[in-house]
């Protein structure tokens, strides 16, 4: 990656710290479609009239063997796609009119979005750029980026030898525990993280959740979390000294959240997942400080 490209890519690298001092007017709640938000399932619009979800089912190409490099940037672990852009995985369909290529993926703990007021222990973001645009161009276009968000739930009784979708990623974490640690030539099967039940999602037009909070993102948020074990979750507490790395939730303005008409949004089922999350998260941060 040459220096110019690196500079461009850093424009969509997560930055945290004091959110009141973030650069850019958009980050100061001045705009209309800021992220993240709480998704109230009772307010979600089933898109029978294809107002927002106009392009059929989501279509994923090339996610089962992805070449990436990884870095611990002091705030999160970020995996960035390597090699020629033409071979990067792509997504289209659903709310996406164009093809979008995978640019990078990273982790937030605890989650940025929430469902019915309740957060998950972790949220993974898969950041995609409209395929025929550079990152710079995409950051100026109202649908320049597409980010898929996948929640993780921690299942305390999950056996450590049971396979989980994040196994391949966790394998690399011991090499990425200190700020600045990096590795290249990482091959991952990301398709395992992107559930095949792809009509179970929420989608809305929002923003980046880090400076400069550009309102250029089509969010696709999976309704059902993937499972990770307690041990796996604790691995992340060693990164970034356990500091939170999520943006606070934003006031609702022009946000309208849609879901495919075939999705059965089942609220009681959702709430069931979260009974122990508060304890888990408290435990997580306790572990960091001891
Ligand atoms: Zn993110």
From TrEMBL:
- Annotated keywords: Lyase, Metal-binding, Zinc
Q: What Gene Ontology molecular function terms does this protein carry?
A: carbonate dehydratase activity; zinc ion binding
Q: Where is this region: Disordered?
A: 1-33
Does this UniProt record's set of keywords contain Transferase?
no
Q: What residues does the Alpha-carbonic anhydrase domain cover? A: 12-261
What SUPFAM superfamilies does the record point to?
Carbonic anhydrase
UniProt keyword annotation of Repressor present: no
Composition bias (Basic and acidic residues) maps to: 23-33
Q: Which InterPro entries match?
A: CA_dom (IPR001148), CA_dom_sf (IPR036398), Carbonic_anhydrase_a-class (IPR023561), Carbonic_anhydrase_a-class_CS (IPR018338)
Check the record and name the Gene3D superfamilies matching this protein: Alpha carbonic anhydrase
Give the EC number(s) under which this enzyme is classified: 4.2.1.1
**Alphabetical list of Pfam families matching this protein:** Carb_anhydrase
Q: What are the required cofactors?
A: Zn(2+)
State the reactions this protein catalyses: hydrogencarbonate + H(+) = CO2 + H2O
Q: Which family does it belong to?
A: Belongs to the alpha-carbonic anhydrase family.
Role, per record: Reversible hydration of carbon dioxide.
- What protein am I looking at? Carbonic anhydrase
The protein's organism comes out as: Bombyx mandarina
Per the record, the gene is LOC114240042
